[in-house]
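Researcher: Please translate sequence to C-alpha cells.
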Amino acid sequence: MKTPLYEQHVSHNARIVDFAGWEMPIQYQGIISEHIATRRGAGLFDVSHMGEITINGPGAGAFINALVTNDISKAKAGRAVYSPLCMEDGGTVDDLLVYVLGDDNYLLVVNAANTKKDYDWVREHAPAGVMVENASRRYAQIAIQGPRALSVLAKLTKIDLDSIRYYRFVQDVTDIPGGPGLISRTGYTGEDGFEVYLPWDNAPVLWEALLEAGAPLGITPVGLGARDTLRLEAAMPLYGHELSAGITPLQAGLSRFVKFDKGDFIGRKALLAQSESGDYTRLIGLVLKDRGIPRAGYPVLSGETVIGEVTSGGQAPYLEEAIALALVPAGYTEPGKALSIGIRDRNVPAKVTALPFYKRG
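Model: Translation complete:
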C-alpha cells in the first residue's frame, strides 16, 4: 500500500521500505540529521498509514468507555484522550487516541499494523445502534514536530494555534491548504507539535505548502527511522515492543491511563489483580556505560543472572549515548542501579535511569 504522499517521498530521494504493508520512507538525508532537525527546528512526518476508525450513534461514548482503560466520560468535544485497549486477560490489543468529535461521535486513531485487528475488535464488541467504520482511506495525516512547528504551521492558517492546548484539537479548519482539516496538538517525538487530518487525496497540497512555509525555518522531511529514535528518547511506547498481547499497560508504565474507578471495562479484573499483587515486570530506562548498541530482545542481567529483556534500544542521536527500554522485575527499577545488557559476546554495564531519557526544556 502507498500513502497519498508516496510520490513526494520519492521526489525527495527517500529510501523506501515496507512497514506493516505500507511503502514508507525510512529516511531522506539520514536518521541522525533528521532527528536533530526535529529537536532543534521542525520535522515533517507522513503518518497517513495510521488507522482511523469512526464510532457514532446513541451510546457510543459509553461503549468506548467500556472498551478502553482510560476514562473518556468527562472529555468534551475538542479533546483527544490517549488510552490502551485491552483484552480480558489484561494484554494489550493496541494503544490509541480517542478524538471526541461531538456527542456520541468519536474518531479512534490506531497503529497502522493493528488497523484491521482493532476494527474487528471494536466491531465485535459494539452494541446495537452504535456504528463502526474503518475510515482510514478517508483521512490523510501529516505531523509537524519541533520547537518551530507552531511558527511553520501558523503561516498556513489563521487559527490561533497557541489556543490549542496539549491533547486538544479544532475541527473544520477551512483555510488550511488541502482542507478542510482537523488540527490537533499531540505528538510522538517528545517535542511540541501538531497533526493535520485532511481528505486523503489533498495531502500533497498541504505537504508542499508546509515545506515551502518552513524552508526559512529549517523544516526537514523525516522518515520512520528518526521517528523511532525520537520516540525512544522520549520513552514513548511502541506497540509490539513496550506493549503487546503479552505486555499489559501496567508493565509498560502506563498505570495513569488505567482508571479502575470509572466502572467496568474489558480487562479491568485482570489488571486490578495484577496491580494489587504487584507481581509483574516493570519498564525501565537503561543508559549504557560502555560501548555497544542495545537492541530489542537482548538480555538484561544483574551480575551473571538474566533478569529481563530489552524492548527497544539504540543510539540516541540528540543525547549522544546508547539507551534502552527494558522489562525487569520490581526489585531492579531504582534509578542508579547497576545492571548490564548482553550484547553479542559480552555484558555491557548499564545504569537504570528515570524516564523519559529526553524532556524538552
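Researcher: Any highlights?
Model: Residues 253 and 283 are 6 Å apart (CA to CA).
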